[in-house]
Amino acid sequence: MEIDLTKEVIRAENKNVVIINQTKLPHKLEFLTLKNCKETAQAIKNMNLRGAGTVGVASGYAMAQAFSELKSKEKILEAKEFIENTRPTAQNLFYATNLVYKTAIDETNSEKIAWDTADSILASDIEATSIMGKLGAELIEDNYSILTHCNAGKLAIQGYGSALAPIYYAHEQKKNCFVYVDETRPRLQGARLTAWELAQENIDHAIIVDNAAGYYFQKGKIDIVFVGADRIAGNGDVANKIGTYEKAVLAKENDVPFYVVAPQSTIDTKTKSGSDIIIEHRSQDEVKNINSNLIANEKSKAFNPAFDITPAKYITGIITENGNYKPDNLYNNLCES
């Protein structure tokens, strides 16, 4: 099941959006062709595609499909709102829908401009991940053991990924490293997706249950942590997959550097702090079932927040394509760039 993930995760083809169906991985490589903006939006909501960058690109293409399908500004705006309601925490989604909409809405050749703009979002992500990977790889020494949470690789953002990009570059540089892969309940993106990606690249790794991270920190087995982000507030607080906050606290307690890797488009300067970020809550069925198999008491309730907030004080640095920032100086650096 070999595939070039830098090219095949998501692409536009004759006004359709072709994606890898991530819900089928790692056991089956399946492509979906999404023929209109509603199908693309539904794929975002159902997590057939996921990851901040991929969601952003998909939402940009969904907006372009809306420009192809709909003629009135009112209907296009309704489509934009429909797309944005799929994943309310993901900043890249809003960045992409707003960029495509604002760039194309008042132009005579709006359809072409919408598709060109969506293509540019994909191209920008590919370029950004390469830079972030090189910056992050500078922090990895030979024989390092690395912890990562959720999936922030090539499936999550096109090119080299975000949190996995430094690992990929370190591997290319012949640095010997080992990766601890949090399983990441309840959707198991680490066990299903990150581990699959690393296996494709022959990078040494092991899946650990989410509750085991503290054990490996305490034993001195982890040298550095890389995670992605779904939204970064102006003060450096980070929204990322549920469980990230716990890993950041553990890293701080055990004097292990904790880095967030994300493109500039993930930063939301209008949001002052993490407390202002809307957290998506998903179905309890995701917690109580795995692959449609009930694993919990049927009558019990389950709570399922998809993300948590990691305060800036627990973060060593935020790596974007524009540099490695201290979280408390993030906003000043943005204003200067």
Oligomer: single chain
Total domains, how many?
2
Following the backbone from N to C, one meets helices and strands in this order, namely HEEEHHHHHEHEHEHEEEHEEHEEEEEH
CATH topology of the largest domain, what is it called?
A: Rossmann fold
| Fourth-tier CATH superfamily name of the largest domain | Translation initiation factor eif-2b, domain 2
Numbering strands along the chain, what is their spatial order in the largest sheet? 6-5-4-7-10-15-16
Going by helix content, strand content and strand pairing, the class is alpha/beta
Could you report the average pLDDT, rounded to the nearest whole number?
95
Give the termini separation: 42 Å
CATH architecture of the largest domain: 3-Layer(aba) Sandwich
Tell me the radius of gyration: 19 Å
- CATH class term of the largest domain: Alpha Beta
Inertia-based shape: globular
Strand content: 15-25%
Q: Give the number of helices.
A: 12
Tell me the number of strands: 16
The percent range for helix content is 25-40%
The low-confidence parts are: none
Strand count, sense and closure of the main sheet?
7 strands, mixed
Describe the overall structure:
- With 337 residues, the protein is an alpha/beta fold.
- The chain folds into two domains: 5-129, Four Helix Bundle (Hemerythrin (Met), subunit A) (Up-down Bundle); 132-336, Rossmann fold.
- It contains twelve helices and 16 strands.
- It has helices at 5-8, 37-45, 52-69, 73-84, 91-104, 110-137, 165-172, 189-200, 213-218, 244-253, 285-288, 330-336; strands spanning 10-13, 16-20, 31-34, 144-148, 177-182, 205-208, 224-227, 231-233, 238-241, 258-261, 267-268, 289-290, 293-294, 307-310, 317-320, 323-325.
- The protein has a seven-stranded mixed sheet, with helices on both faces. Strands 11-8-9-14 form a four-stranded mixed sheet, covered by helices on one side.
- Helix 8 (189-200) links the parallel strand 5 (177-182) and strand 6.
- It is globular and about 60 Å long.
